[in-house]
Amino acid sequence: MSSNMIASSEYQRIFLEDIPLLDVRAPIEYSKGAFNDSTNIALMSDDERKQVGTCYKQHGQNAAITLGHSLVNGKTKQQRVEAWQQYITKHPQAYLYCFRGGLRSKLSQQWIKEAGSDIPFIEGGYKAMRQYLIQTIESAAIEQPLLMLSGITGSGKTDLLLQRNEAIDLEGLANHRGSSFGKNIDPQPTQINFENNLAVKLLKQQRLAYQFTLLEDESYLIGRSAIPQVFYQAMQRSQVIVLEESFDNRLSRIHQAYVVDKANTYINRYGMEQGKHAFTDYLLNSINSIKKRLGGKMHADLTVLIEQAINCQFIRNDLSAHFDWISTLLLHYYDPMYQYQLAKKQQRIIFSGDHQAISEWLTANKKRIQY
Predict the structure, then answer these.
(1) Which secondary-structure segment (H or E) carries 121?
(2) Nearest-CA neighbor of 146 among 212, 95, 102?
(3) Are strands 167-168 and 213-216 parallel, antiparallel or unpaired?
(4) Helix axes 272-288, 262-270, angle to 10 degrees
(5) In sequence order, what are the beta bridge partners of 351?
(6) Looking at 22, 34, 98, 202, which residue is catalytic?
(7) Active site includes 98?
(8) How confident is the model at residue 58 (pLDDT cuts 50, 70, 90)?
(9) What is the reported pLDDT for 245?
(10) How far is 161 from 256, CA to CA, in rounded Å?
């Protein structure tokens, strides 16, 4: 065993301490799944990796290694080593890994050392660390007490979660607000990255040792991010607290989030004219995504209201018309759907109240576990 290798027993510490990680896999591997604290500076490009892989299948390991050295040589090798050295200079405590902690890790480590720097590589590489995180989620589903925060659309569940140390914001991890209008301007993470980030959050919650982990009572899908099945099933068995809020406050909160803030986000990103079009597309695409569930007439009526509100917004600088379609959507779509779902959870509900009451109840019930 190399004296400069980080053993698999250190995985927990790596994630808890947010150790900087140098990922030397090919870019295509990194794009499919990675860790938050990692930076991809590849040993081989996607094309080089493909050529070496084909050679390995046809001619064996030795021929593949020889080809790899011929592809990453001279100026190409020098540029990659220099990039690694620059990273290590900025992150002297960093660790290195490839996919399995094998040849690519050892070769990268060797070249870095020959250039005058030193960095340990991680036993098992990305594959083993990924498996460790999957096991973390599966274990948490069995061992980590969960508490679900339910609340009607617009009640401010996310606002409350962000104020609580014992909470994990699943929608934040998924970069999606969970509803048909919940899509954000930046893309959602890959499914693998969503799972990796959830596992790291669970590890950090275990370290805090609260009596429970607070989560929003989400659907299985948050946008296109799927909650791991075993964890979702544990959520469905867990006790529920219900956040109550007035209709007017809900209406105001949704108007702020999905009209005022969203329009500003698009305009700041794309400029006034392009931003207006992007915001308009966002609203119309969102209502179109639930057309079948709304029914033809309600969808058509809401579309007219949205278009009228957009015209008032950008022609008269009046955003108040958006309250019309938001209130209609709440009263005739979201609220009935929520009441139907909540009725099926009555036996699991242990507390209900407004923001202050919920916060006080959580504080009174979040005693640390005694070891």
Answers:
(1) strand 121-122
(2) 212
(3) parallel
(4) 140
(5) 241
(6) 98
(7) yes
(8) confident
(9) 97
(10) 18
Q: What are the backbone dihedrals phi and psi of residue 123, each rounded to the nearest 5 degrees, phi first?
A: -60, 135
Closest to 149 measured CA to CA, from 59, 276, 262, 239: 239
Residue 40's alpha-carbon distances to 43, 174, 234, 310, in angstroms, are 9, 22, 34, 42
Q: Which residues of 55-75 are buried (b: 16+ CB within 10 A; e: fewer)?
A: bbeeeeeeebeebbeebbeee
Measured distance CA(183)–CA(286) in Å, rounded: 8
Conformational region of residue 188, where left means phi above 0, alpha means psi within -120 to 50, and beta covers everything else = beta
Q: How far is 49 from 68, CA to CA, in rounded Å?
A: 8
| 269 Cβ contact partners less than 8 Å away, ≥ 6 residues apart | 185, 275, 278
Model pTM score = 0.92
In terms of Cβ atoms closer than 10 Å to its own Cβ (0-12, 13-18, 19+), residue 340 is exposed
How would you list the strands of the sheet with 121-122, edge to edge? 5-6, 121-122, 95-97, 21-23, 38-40
Which tokens hold the place of 199? 């596992």
Structure tokens, 269: 């990103």
pLDDT of residue 370: 33
Query: Strand pairing partners for 6?
Result: 122
pLDDT greater than 50 at residue 1: no
SS3 content of the chain, % helix, strand, coil (to 5): 60, 10, 30
Locus of tokens 């250190």 = 10
Taking the C-alpha atoms of residue 14 and residue 175, their distance in angstroms, rounded to an integer, is 24
DSSP string for 53-96:
HHHHHHH-HHHHHHHHHHHS-HHHHHHHHHHHHHHHHH-TT-EE
301-351 pLDDT, tens digit each: 999 999 999 999 999 999 999 999 999 999 999 999 999 999 999 999 999
Residue 277 to residue 146: CA distance in whole angstroms: 42
Q: Which two tokens stand for residue 102?
A: 């094998």
